[in-house]
Amino acid sequence: MYSGALAATPILSLAQSLPKTRRLGMLLSDSASKEGLGGTFFQRLKELGWSEGSNLAVEYRFARGTDQFPQLATELVQQKVDVIFTGGSPFPLDAARKATTTIPIVFSGGYSDNVSAGVIQSLARPGGNITGVSFVSGELLAKRFELLKEVIPSLSKIGVLRENGAASYASQQTVLIEAARTLKIEMATFSLRDPGEFESVAQSAKNEKVGGLFVNGTPLFASRANVARLAELLIKYQLPAIGAWNYMADAGFLMGYSADPLGLLVKAAGYIDKIFRGANPGELPVEEPTRYELVVNLKAAKALKIVVPKAIILRADRVIE
């Protein structure tokens, strides 16, 4: 799926030129899975010549709450890892960059605009000790609103469901407000801290006559169990929703629209390989996704009493019957 010079490099020649064992620090949320990473991220590293237990030592740190990231980042610095990888929301990325300005950091995710957030100097030359791949862009955020409006032409008010205190939302808010203005619809924001507030938030959205929701991709919604519970409530309160990740459509949302997270992990592994071999992270351009995948759940549409336009179904990368 992903090609280019990196993918074309013969594995044998890589193995012959491998340097000493490298130490990789993994700073992730507790909802992340070693198994999920193993099928993509570590498989790609293995293809590039890096095998855990052979010439790759991995230090895992999983945060059960966002307040744990700073301490865990400090622990990885103390372990003197060669690279710190952060995945998902801005929380682990922020913790890592505050913990070190010398150890290279490779992120997959971060902010919707990592330049404006001060993480990097520019996409072409990030500078400092940080590089990686972004899975959000202003174009992607606006497109989610457009898709919801296309499915529900009568939509006059859209709700944004976000995790309270999520660092990524501040960088997205301006883009979302402008997207709503362009579509000539109102926008309401609903914040919550834990799954116990799902039903009250759904009730509030219904009371405020919200016709559809965009659910952000912050750590609270990285949990499949949380997303499944929320999906049930969205059906109960007849709230069509588009999710920041495609698995949200699998869980019962009307739609999911996102970059391919597994493909981004593959690209991130390529950055780590280059840094292990001596590349300067500040000179490795940060990549943004060039392709997004749309998943439509027709089973959810039926429960929501919505007829999805044929044009949307034909454009979908995957349709759940």
Structure description:
There is one protein chain. By secondary structure, this protein is α/β, with parallel strands linked by helices. α6 (90-99) links the parallel β3 (83-88) and β4. α4 packs across α12 (261-276), α5 (69-78) crosses α6 and α7 (138-151) crosses α8. The two termini are 26 Å apart. It has helices at 5-8, 11-16, 34-38, 41-47, 69-78, 90-99, 138-151, 167-183, 198-207, 224-236, 247-251, 261-276, 298-303, 310-315; strands spanning 22-29, 56-63, 83-88, 105-109, 130-133, 157-163, 186-192, 212-215, 241-243, 255-259, 292-297, 318-320. The strands form 2 sheets. It has a 7-stranded mixed β-sheet with strand order 7-6-8-9-10-11-12, with helices on both faces. Strands 2-1-3-4-5 form a 5-stranded parallel β-sheet, sandwiched between helices.
Mean pLDDT, rounded to whole units? Answer: 87
CA radius of gyration: 20 Å
Estimated helix fraction: 40-55%
Q: CATH top level of the largest domain?
A: Alpha Beta
Largest sheet: 7 strands, mixed
If you consult CATH, what is the topology of the largest domain? Answer: Rossmann fold
Q: Could you tell me how far the N terminus lies from the C terminus, measured between alpha carbons in angstroms?
A: 26 Å
Determine the structural class based on helices, strands and strand pairing. Answer: alpha/beta
* Spatial order of the strands forming the largest sheet: 7-6-8-9-10-11-12
Poorly predicted segments: 1-16
Number of helices: 14
- Looking at the overall shape, the CATH architecture of the largest domain is 3-Layer(aba) Sandwich
H/E element order: HHEHHEHEHEEHEHEHEHEHEHEHHE
CATH superfamily of the largest domain: Response regulator
Globular, elongated, flat, extended or rod-shaped: what is the shape? elongated
Total number of distinct structural domains: 2
Q: Please count the beta strands (DSSP E, at least 2 residues each).
A: 12
How much beta, percentage-wise?
15-25%
